[in-house]
Design a protein that fits this description.
- InterPro entries: AAA+_ATPase, IstB_ATP-bd, P-loop_NTPase.
- The protein is an alpha/beta fold.
- It folds into 2 domains: about 30 residues, no CATH class; about 170 residues, 3-Layer(aba) Sandwich (Rossmann fold), CATH 3.40.50.300.
- The chain has 8 helices and 8 strands; from the N terminus they run E-E-E-H-H-E-H-E-H-H-E-H-E-H-H-E.
- The strands form 2 sheets. The protein has a 5-stranded parallel beta sheet with strand order 5-6-7-4-8. A 3-stranded antiparallel beta sheet has the order 1-2-3, with no helix packed on it.
- Strand 6, helix 6 and strand 7 form a beta-alpha-beta unit.
- The longest helix is centred in the first third of the chain and has 29 residues.
- It is elongated, with a radius of gyration of 29 Å.
- The chain starts with 9 loop residues before the first strand and ends in an 11-residue tail after the last strand.
Amino acid sequence: MESIKLSKPKSELIAEFTCEGCGEDVKQTKLQIPKGPRAGEEIIANYGCKCEDIKLANQAKERRKQLRKSKMMRVFDYYSLINDNLQTATIENYKPTNEDLQQAKQQVIDYIADYDGKKNLLLTGSYGTGKSHISVAITKKLMEQGNECLFLSLPKLLTKIKDTFNSKEVTEDELLQVIKRVDLLVLDDIGAEHHTDWANTKLFEVLDDRSGKSTIYTTNLGSKELRAQINERNFSRMMENTEVIMMNGRDYRRKDF
């Protein structure tokens, strides 16, 4: 049987150096192509350099990041319960109507800058001062940073959970698993309606699952009224590692009047 001989390209070591890009020791070698249409052509090869590997790895990492961001947006859009008038809410287009609300806005900006995934916020104050606006704006900023967020009006969430009893689209367990998983959850309008024992039990499940993760709460009630509405156990759980931001002022929705 005739053996096949493989021709090795002629090579000549040109230089040895440390690559500034990847920090690896490199042997720069001149090679001569032995066969084919490019036979005799000389090329330069840098053996040991990892720059191309690093470039490909970074490209793959960026693709994964973009896919994760797209997935987060799909989850946010699918599960979040946001009124149409809040869809365009941002930190930048929130215009405080007094010094107290200006201070509240700055506290929120500081919260975003120092976000660690563990600290909670309670936005409390009179009707129409922009608590929901600010909360939606926080989710947008944090999603830009790669965090998975969810905005839920608590009254609508409780209705949504009831709807899952007869739904083939989303089960209660699936909904609660998403709530448990996300990096930041906003529970809007807590105490807006009378809470039954069932509602308070569901609220405790959510709060218990969120233990150790960031949650933002908004309410129009003071501490005594809120405690009476959602019960002592839920109120105590809500206040764990929670910064209270007061948002009192004239109705933000009627500022033009």
